[in-house]
């Protein structure tokens, strides 16, 4: 395969390839092995789907309906580029008997538009607005897998994990916030086997890039007074918005800025050493060299010493989530939480802060008992093994996939149902 993200090699017979995939899918569901002809991106997705407790005969759950769906769509950033999506893809979808679909960052479908007959057929498998098509909920599919791997992806026929979706072919590309780089959702084209062509993947990718350009134009201009913004949740390398520039920081510089932003009074060299390094043999010279490099990255006047401090307040997404939690705005806090703080960091102070934020938010979610908020956490990478949250979700939304995932977790952990579960290992063990 010249491009692993494209479903069919040029000249390949779609019918024969679909038969091969059905045999491979049966092999995987029966014995857990993936035959070699299956693309690596699909094989990895099948394994993730199985670990999430998705069954091949499952179906998508509709989680948002009527007024809830309308309110959520109206507030979503991608609502601002729906006219662009319709302009670029609407005629193509209608004339080709395809569907234009747009999902959020959690794989929840927000809009499904296109040919009426195709929409009616897709509705039989709950490919409808408000349904959760995250990979962790319904297995391999283009919109769900695109947001899971943050790549444009094409899924053909029996590459879909759930059998009732296997007559379909789809291609989707993630759409990012132009300021922060976060995934906002994905744009998808769904239809028959005719979409199993490299052009369909290139098409949705181009539409996604056009949407990002449009969003960039819609972002209000920065105020004249610099107000640095630090984005560190859900990413190993933080982004700093400074004077109209977006700076991608190294891991160590990300840790330093997170800590200094939380201590406007400043930190001494010894305090920073203890906060950043587990190894007590690290010398002050190493720290001073790192800070000198950071000062060059930031430019003059922002980082001072004795003690080390930032000369202007830096607003971070960590602060935003904490403030919202303190005021009881749980939904807003969950919306602002893009993932664990600098998940690859092993700096002692960052690890403590990461756990404090995550524990505070998940505790609030469990207490709130909102099924949508719990589902968002449970289906995120950091929540897929969070037993407490899955139990809370099963109590308020006891669907078959939720009960199956909970049973699998409890069996895996071998703990009685009444005992306290473990938090997600993604939160507890920093990645290397």
Automatic annotation (TrEMBL):
OmpR/PhoB-type domain boundaries: 244-310
Cross-referenced Pfam families: GAF
Record SUPFAM superfamilies: C-terminal effector domain of the bipartite response regulators
Keywords: DNA-binding, Transcription, Transcription regulation
Highest taxon of the lineage: Bacteria
Keyword Nucleotide-binding: no
Name the UniProt record assigns to this protein: GAF domain-containing protein
